[in-house]
């Protein structure tokens, strides 16, 4: 059985622990919510969903269209409406756990500017829609607090200064999923035109998704 089959959703339905947003929450949304929901749905369908279920844990680093420091100049045309596939030569994300797959997705177009994706209301909607998708597909969506590892007790849950390499999460059981979204500063180690390595930084939307792996019955 392939890894994607092991991670595929079951038919358990919605979880009482993490219900999707109610219908009343949708109809009572503010006037500007409809275009926000549409844009969030497009991001999930086009740039997040294709990477789910291939790995038990994944970090998607989604670069908004106007974060020029993280986008190669030759691949920055504003007329494109889909993610840019070209990256810097030998680019490596700095500060992400090596045991978790991390993928860079570059967006383009005025609708994908940083100013939109860093709005608190948009991040909240993205988190709700992503959790709703996972729940609808049969996962039991859970929220587990971060815990500082013993060798770094000064890092506390909820702190913006928590280093991803110094925290641990409760392992997920079969059928469970966990998702989080945030806009944060990320660093790239790249090879420049002279063949030398340099570090670039900029804000990006980081989407983290984890799944509890279903054991192979065979």
Explained architecture:
Helices cover 22% and strands 24% of the residues. It is built from five helices and eight strands, in the order H-H-H-E-E-E-H-H-E-E-E-E-E. Helix 3 crosses helix 5 (120-136). The longest helix has 17 residues, at 120-136. The radius of gyration is 18 Å and the shape is globular. The protein starts with a helix and ends in a 7-residue tail after the last strand.
SSE layout and pairing:
Blueprint: H1 3-7, H2 23-27, H3 33-48, E1 57-63, E2 92-94, E3 101-106, H4 114-117, H5 120-136, E4 140-141, E5 147-148, E6 167-168, E7 176-191, E8 197-211
Helix pairs in contact: 3-5
Describe this structure in a few short sentences.
With 218 residues, this protein is an alpha/beta fold. It is built from five helices and eight strands.
Secondary-structure element order, as H and E? HHHEEEHHEEEEE
- Calculate Rg over CA atoms: 18 Å
Count up the helices: 5
Structural class: alpha/beta
Query: What is the CA-CA span between the terminal residues?
Result: 9 Å
Averaged pLDDT, please? Answer: 75
Strand proportion, as a percent range, falls in 15-25%
| C-alpha geometry | globular
- Helical content band: 10-25%
Q: What about the largest sheet? A: 6 strands, mixed
Unreliable spans: 10-27, 75-85, 147-162
Number of strands: 8
């Amino acid at each position: 059985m392939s890894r994607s089959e092991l991670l595929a959703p079951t038919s358990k339905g919605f979880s009482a622990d993490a219900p999707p947003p109610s219908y009343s929450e949708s109809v009572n949304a503010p006037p500007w919510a409809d275009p926000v929901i549409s844009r969030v749905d497009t991001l999930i369908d086009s740039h997040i969903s294709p990477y789910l279920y291939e790995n038990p844990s994944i970090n998607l680093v989604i670069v908004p269209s106007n974060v020029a420091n993280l986008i190669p100049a030759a691949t920055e045309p504003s007329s494109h409406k889909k993610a840019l596939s070209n990256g810097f030569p030998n680019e490596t994300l700095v500060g992400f756990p090596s045991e978790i797959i991390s993928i860079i997705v570059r967006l383009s177009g005025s609708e994908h500017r940083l100013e939109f994706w860093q709005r608190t209301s948009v991040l909240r909607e993205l988190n709700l829609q992503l959790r709703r998708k996972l729940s609808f597909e049969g996962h039991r969506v859970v929220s587990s607090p971060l815990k500082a590892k013993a060798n770094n007790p000064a890092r506390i849950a909820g702190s913006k200064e928590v280093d991803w390499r110094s925290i641990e999460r409760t392992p997920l059981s079969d059928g469970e999923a966990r998702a989080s979204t945030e806009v944060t500063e990320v660093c790239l180690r790249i090879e420049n035109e002279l063949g030398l390595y340099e570090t670039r930084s900029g804000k990006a939307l980081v989407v983290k998704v984890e799944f509890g792996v279903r054991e192979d019955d065979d």
